[in-house]
Write a structure and sequence with these properties.
Length: 191
């Protein structure tokens, strides 16, 4: 049996061995920072409001009814991909998002920065034919509400629809989003 004896010139060992020599004020500051951030997150739940979960059975029903000839238009590229699973056009309704998220390609076309789908700036732009010349069967707009430094995007789509005079059928509305079907405005022949 081997018994280790303390050497005379070594200091006595008290408590646990410290591998990192950090001053106690630094530990106190770290603990205080964790408590402040934790309390802030717990009280206001700011992460939840910044990234709300969009989950509803109605979305699954709409997704199941989609046809390849339908045009899916979204106000939030990534949110639409996650909610619907597809995006055909990105509807950039405000200059704030246009300045930050529209990519102008060398050929002059404009696309969304995340998905690369063509961008539209007005609801009436959505009635253009597809690349093969065919027209979409239905046009569905998935409007996901987001908080921006300039305000909430909830009012942008209704305002644009009113300005363009586009007929709308509401398919779904939740606190986080709405899905509407639009059709071309009626045109009357001049007499």
């Amino acid at each position: 049996m081997i018994i280790r004896q303390r050497r005379e010139d070594s200091p006595p060992q008290l408590g646990a061995r410290r591998y990192v020599n950090v001053p106690r004020p630094a530990y106190a500051a770290l603990v205080a920072l964790v408590l402040i951030v934790g309390t802030d997150q717990w009280r206001r739940n700011s992460l939840e409001s910044a990234r709300p979960t969009i989950a509803t059975d109605a979305i699954a029903n709409i997704r199941a009814e989609l046809k390849p000839t339908d045009r899916i238009v979204c106000t939030d590229e990534l949110g639409c991909l996650m909610a619907i699973g597809r995006i055909d056009r990105w509807l950039a309704l405000d200059n704030y998002v246009r300045e930050r998220f529209v990519v102008k390609k060398a050929d002059g076309s404009e696309t969304g920065v995340y998905t690369g789908v063509p961008v539209a700036f007005r609801p009436t732009d959505l009635f253009e034919p597809n690349a093969d010349g065919s027209l979409p069967n239905r046009i569905l707009i998935v409007d996901i509400f987001k908080e921006y430094p300039i305000g909430n995007s909830r009012t942008w789509l209704p305002r644009a629809i009113d300005l363009d005079g586009v007929p709308v059928t509401s398919l779904l509305e939740t606190p986080q989003m709405r899905i509407v079907e639009i059709s071309q405005p009626e045109r009357h022949a001049a007499r």
